[in-house]
Amino acid sequence: MNFPNEDRNHGVKTVVVPAAGMGTRFLPATKTVPKELLPVVDTPGIELIAEEAAKLGAERLAVITAPSKQEILAHFERFPQLEETLTERGKDEQVAKVRRANELITPVAVEQERPLGLGHAVGLAESVLGEDEDSFAVMLPDDLVLPMGAVEEMAKVRAELGGTVLCAIEVDPDEVYNYGVFDIEEVDGREDVKRVKGMVEKPDPADAPSNYVATGRYLLDRAIFDALRRIKPGKGGELQLTDAIALLIEEGHPVHVVVHRGSRHDLGNPGGYIRACVDFGLRDPKYGPALRKAILEILDEVDGESPAGAEQA
Ligand code: G1P
């Protein structure tokens, strides 16, 4: 699948997708279906990430998976029999849907045998990077950052300021304990680019340095691998990517954030996932109009059943 060749002069060849988590918040569905394959309307989250990586012009999707989650890689294979059956039945639109993931990008599997944290997962990607790759991107499949193109913006900042560039969103100060939080200072004349002086993983709101938090897009300098080898287990007893970035900052490595002003969905929990499905569903030309009507009817019904619930909402 080809995307227009603009903005590709940034040298990001590999996009790392950590997808080894157990998906405990989605049980019982995730007993047999990896969280990354749950569909937003009809397309699995991992395929939306592959689309974003392909648009960026990356060549490789390094998918970090658990030994029990091989279905994620299977999604990127060809399905000749299915294609043949659909073709015979004249279902060309469905044939294109079956082929799409395979045509988007080349996946490479990297196995993470034990869930030792995001930092550990990213560290494993070193083995698939070419020697000429001095940077690479990480896209967390739980986070949909919209409109697509955040990493392109981050690459422009790296071309100008060097080092490592991350994606920040502003959240309610009470929410910071869910995220890596940035300690930032302004960069002259730049509203949406800030210099990062420090970073802390999931702090208590009272101790948080700001309400600018990491959302799941990272453009990392290769120096991160050395830092990842030197950190100790942090928050939750896991090796945290945040701690390796904080170590690089301490040692003088330039780190900046691009503040994302678009929207974001958190597919990592059922509440955020349902919201994403409603958002994508309402914008879908096929399902949108009926969904809008159904939502209004359901709202009426639910509010009628529980006036207290309606007031709270
Ligand atoms: C991870 C990172 C955190 C970041 C978040 C963004 O946390 O550790 O720094 O802010 O992703 O979604 P997780 O949500 O995997 O616990």
How would you sum up this structure, described in words?
The chain has 313 residues and is of the alpha/beta class. The strands form 3 sheets. A 9-stranded mixed beta sheet has the order 5-4-1-6-11-8-12-10-9. Strands 2-3 form a two-stranded antiparallel ribbon. A two-stranded antiparallel sheet has the order 7-13. The relative contact order is 0.14. The mean pLDDT is 94.
Provide a quick synopsis of the model.
The chain is an alpha/beta fold and 313 residues long. Helix content is 36%, strand content 25%. The strands form three sheets. A nine-stranded mixed β-sheet has the order 5-4-1-6-11-8-12-10-9. The protein has a two-stranded antiparallel sheet with strand order 2-3.
Chart the SSEs and their pairings.
Elements (H helix, E strand, L loop, with lengths): L13 E6 L19 E2 L2 E2 H12 L3 E6 L5 H4 L5 H9 L3 H13 L1 E6 L6 H6 L11 E5 L3 E4 L3 H12 L2 E7 L9 E8 L2 E12 L10 E10 L1 H8 L10 H10 L4 E5 L3 E4 L3 H14 L4 H18 L1 H6 L1
Parallel strand pairs: 1-4, 1-6, 4-5, 8-12
Antiparallel strand pairs: 2-3, 6-11, 7-13, 8-11, 9-10, 10-12
Helix pairs in contact: 3-4, 7-8, 9-10
Bound molecules: 1-O-phosphono-alpha-D-glucopyranose (G1P).
Bound molecules: 1-O-phosphono-alpha-D-glucopyranose
Largest sheet: 9 strands, mixed
Using the alpha-carbon principal axes, give the shape. Answer: globular
What's the helix count? 11
Order of the strands making up the biggest sheet: 5-4-1-6-11-8-12-10-9
| Low-pLDDT segments, ≥5 res | none
pLDDT averaged over residues? 94
- The share of residues in helices is 25-40%
> In terms of structural class, how would the helical and strand content be classed?
alpha/beta
Strand content: 15-25%
Distance between the termini: 43 Å
Order of helices and strands: EEEHEHHHEHEEHEEEEHHEEHHH
**Total E-strand runs:** 13
| Gyration radius, in Å | 20 Å
